[in-house]
Design a protein that fits this description.
Length: about 260
């Protein structure tokens, strides 16, 4: 199931047999979604750490962001942009779903994506300055892993709390099926481990409170999607991941600055 998650949630190569049998494992593969966040966070940390010595913090951070986008094939960013287009330009469920299904990117999507990426860049850059992350390789790695892992778990909570909005049209319905309740528990364990590691390593036991604003944001987004389209879509989950990742960086800034 891990390789199924790897094949669906990233661009990393997997054995060909995984693609042949992926449909039956997709519902339970969601438990490994946060584990993909470990990989994305580790990659971002490695790229940032290596590039910062050559190009400085700003360029290194842009390269780190680019590395995770390449890793996932802009999977989540594309979902966020589609949500901006759909909810920005549609006023009925049918219209919103139709716009989100369109592969073309509109003004709302372009502007939303530019703002999101700019905010993430500025937030992480500020976090680096406040927490002096650039001076500690392991801290950088752990922060990126926490952000990418916790944000993916937030998306899972939307899956378990709401229904899919257009299951009859989905070609990848197995990818958004809830599966067994144990999947949420296992995904939670994968999420808590790096968060606990960061709290211990940074010497800030209150870091764990970032769970609350992240899950509250995910809860709000889930209810917002339910109000307008009766549930969520894959694009909605991408938007949840992207927005909660930003929330994590902003929350960490506050913790390092005031707590």
């Amino acid at each position: 199931m891990f390789f199924t998650a790897l094949a669906f949630y990233s661009r990393l190569p997997v054995p060909h047999s995984v693609h042949q049998h992926s449909a039956q494992f997709l519902p339970d593969a969601i438990r490994y979604f946060p584990l993909i966040g470990w990989i994305a966070g580790l990659l971002a940390g490695l790229v940032y750490t290596g590039a910062t010595y050559l190009f400085g913090d700003s360029v290194a951070l842009l390269l780190a962001m680019a590395s995770t986008i390449l890793l996932t094939g802009a999977f989540h960013e594309d979902g966020f942009a589609d949500v901006c287009d759909g909810f920005g330009g549609g006023w009925t469920k049918e219209r919103i779903l139709l716009i989100m299904k369109d592969s073309r990117l509109g003004t709302y999507g372009v502007v939303g994506l530019l703002l999101l990426l700019s905010l993430k860049f500025a937030a992480v850059q500020k976090l680096i300055g406040v927490a002096l992350l650039a001076e500690d390789v392991y801290m950088v790695m752990t922060v990126f892993i926490v952000a990418h892992t916790l944000s993916r778990f937030a998306a899972i909570t939307v899956v378990y709390n709401h229904s899919y909005a257009r299951i009859e049209e989905s070609k990848a319905s197995g990818a958004i099926a809830k599966g067994r309740p144990v999947n949420l528990f296992i995904g939670g364990l994968f999420t808590l481990l790096p968060l606990v590691a960061l709290a211990i390593y940074a010497g800030k036991p209150f870091i764990g409170i970032i769970i609350f604003p992240v899950l509250l944001l995910a809860m709000y987004l889930g209810r917002y999607f339910k109000k307008w389209i009766g549930g969520y879509t894959g694009d909605c989950l991408g938007a949840v991941q992207q927005l909660t990742e930003l929330m994590i960086y902003l929350s960490l800034i506050v913790i390092w600055k005031f707590i």
